[in-house]
Design a protein that fits this description.
Strand content: 15-25%
Strand order of the largest sheet: 3-2-1-7-8-9
Structural class: alpha/beta
Bound molecules: ligand BV8, zinc ion
Radius of gyration: 18 Å
Number of strands: 9
Number of helices: 9
Largest sheet: 6 strands, parallel
Distance between the termini: 16 Å
Length: about 250
């Protein structure tokens, strides 16, 4: 892939890069994207209908089993070249802040140090009654789904539709947006709010916005640069082009 020389010069000069990611950045790790994931037993369900407090109240076992199925999908997943290139950026730029919508924890496993998980992390559990954190899940199946403090049902530590994003994470994302020079928007359909407002806000704050996605999204029009392709291919090539001696 050929890259604009102005973009490459800018990347070499910046001090702070923000990287906003969605499910597409984990696609090459074998994790189906959020809108493509519902297959097999779950083909007749919409994720938006399962990832809600009402669904959990109505049918906690089905929602719990949907997360156990997704953990099964994620359990053997490894960080892919996109996650690794984003982590490698930390050796090339003074500060790299990752703001992710993903709940799979792969940015942390790839070695990214500053990771803001806007929608939580599927490997964490907490009590749906007293919010007491419960022990982490490494495998997919969880036997004990009850809180040891109050007996309430455990729920995954993710943000459901209709729930507010963690205030601290949102505040950190806003700080990054103000401070970063360049804002990458990678692997997201930009349909879920309020996360999808971040690239728009970045552009209105005068940041250089770079979109990486094999398909067109509504954010193409706010990006100064649209790199059409898979993140696992585009990002390593971009780092090689911008920092040939270090990649
Ligand atoms: C809230 C955790 C209010 C759970 C998730 C306007 C403003 C505010 C809210 C709303 C609003 N309009 C509507 C709402 C409500 C709602 C919403 O946005 N609904 C949508 C469906 C319209 N938002 C909410 O409910 C949010 N909460 O607003 O609360 C409030 C305030 C105060 C007090 C109380 C309440 C909460 C939203 C969080 C929901 N939780 N995840 C779980 O995972 O189970 S969101 C879920 O969608 C995932 O986290 C996922 O990451 C995220 C977004 O999807 P994408 O990541 O973009 O994935 P998708 O599959 O869509 O796209 C993949 C992309 O990758 C595609 O473009 C594809 O082309 C590309 N791709 C594919 N392969 C590759 C690739 N790209 C690069 N490389 C590849 N190889
Ligand atoms: Zn409890």
């Amino acid at each position: 892939m050929l890259f604009d020389f102005v973009l490459l010069d800018k990347l070499r000069a910046v001090r702070h890069i923000a990287v906003f990611t969605g499910a597409g950045v984990s696609a090459e790790s074998g994790i189906p994207t959020f809108r493509d994931a519902q297959t097999g037993l779950w083909a007749n369900y919409r994720a938006e209908d399962l990832a809600t407090p009402d669904a959990f109240r109505r049918d906690p076992i089905t929602v719990w089993n949907w997360y156990a199925w997704r953990r099964e999908l994620m359990r053997d997943a490894q960080p892919n070249p996109a996650h690794l290139a984003i982590a490698q950026l930390q050796r090339l730029v003074a500060r790299v802040s990752v703001i992710t919508q993903n709940v799979d924890g792969l940015h942390l496993r790839a070695g990214s140090r500053e990771v803001i998980e806007l929608h939580g992390n599927i490997w964490n559990n907490l009590c749906s009654q007293c919010s007491q954190p419960a022990h982490r899940i490494e495998g997919a199946q969880e036997v004990q789904t009850r809180c040891t403090h109050c007996g309430g049902r455990l729920r995954p530590g993710v943000v459901w539709f209709g729930e507010a994003l963690p205030a601290a994470a949102w505040a950190r994302a806003a700080e990054v947006l103000e401070a970063a020079d360049v804002f990458f928007c990678i692997g997201t359909s930009s349909l879920v709010e309020p996360a999808a407002s971040l690239p728009r806000h970045a552009r209105s704050c005068g940041r250089t916005v770079i979109q990486i996605n094999p398909e067109a999204t509504s954010h193409d029009e706010i990006a100064q640069y649209v790199l059409r392709g898979k993140a696992g291919q585009v990002l390593p090539e971009l780092l090689q082009a911008a920092w040939p001696q270090n990649s």
